[in-house]
């Protein structure tokens, strides 16, 4: 390991500025060499915030409907003549206090009512892509919830056309590759999911995977065994939310009944050592969303998140933003939050970024290219 790979930071928030303390570990001695407000100059790097910004990242757990910022919500409400029960974007933001997943979902589904036309889905995805580009996201695997829209009479074609066009433009303009994940709402029935899947089949070449989201409690993955089997027959990849609020048993079901190759959230796996062993042995990635977990009270504070335990258990953990417009941060803010809470080293930040590409449904050749880039950054 090179000398610079052993650099660590300690982040201290001071009046919105990041105050890093650079520590060099030399022969077991820990020497503070420099402290400087607003971003220290590291040999070959800037502040931790800059380092995170420079890391190439794959975002694997993002609900496109959860990127609807209040300003865009108002713009769409106005052009589509949809009434919002708020006077301003500021008032919307103030309403974002959640007691659990369900209290968030109630507001999240309300927000989706402004999305009516393919142009709205395009604008939504385009706004996310601009943000993703600013944050050096190179690849995104993005959920969309067709049932949240078809239930309101929106044709599935409008949803997929708008999203697909934006992500194609994102590839052309920003070089961001992407895959759409059609996600079933688990509070609806298995039959409803199957009907939705059949309606989506004419657009089969425009999405790459299926997922499972919405209210987890009392909605076990097993409810969706048939539709996931059907999706696998179509050659789609399979992921599922499990172990966010629901018990470890739901993670087992996602693996065994749905044959999910990646688990969204999964943080409650830690309650079941046999499950942790299985996830480690099979290297099943977890798409962890730290700011989401705090906002939805899965953990009462970021310092009490179990990220350290998941990493120490040898799991393939990735960092993601889930619903950034609602939870106060995109991917870089999630990285920074866990860095500050757990004193993550440069190596550990690189590992998290590396895991995101390992866990992505990308060809090995593209992964190798990014791994080389990450190695260079780590040793710079
Ligand atoms: N839909 C949007 N965000 C979600 C989350 N965190 N869990 C389950 N369903 C969701
Ligand atoms: Zn989610």
In short:
The chain has two domains: 3-35, no CATH class; 55-370, TIM Barrel, CATH 3.20.20.140. The chain is 45% helix and 18% strand.
Describe this structure in words.
The strands form two sheets. This protein has an eight-stranded parallel sheet. The N and C termini lie close together (12 Å). It is built from 17 helices and eleven strands. The longest helix has 19 residues, at 156-174. The radius of gyration is 21 Å and the shape is globular. The chain folds into two domains: 3-35, no CATH class; 55-370, Metal-dependent hydrolases (TIM Barrel, Alpha-Beta Barrel), CATH 3.20.20. It is 45% helix and 18% strand. Strand 8 (237-242), helix 10 (248-256) and strand 9 (262-265) form a beta-alpha-beta unit. It has 380 residues and is of the alpha/beta class. Residues 1-43 have low confidence and may be disordered. It has helices spanning 48-54, 70-80, 89-94, 101-111, 118-134, 146-150, 156-174, 190-200, 225-233, 248-256, 273-281, 290-295, 307-312, 324-327, 331-342, 346-358, 364-378, and strands at 8-14, 17-26, 29-35, 57-63, 137-144, 177-185, 209-213, 237-242, 262-265, 286-288, 317-319. It binds adenine and zinc ion (ZN).
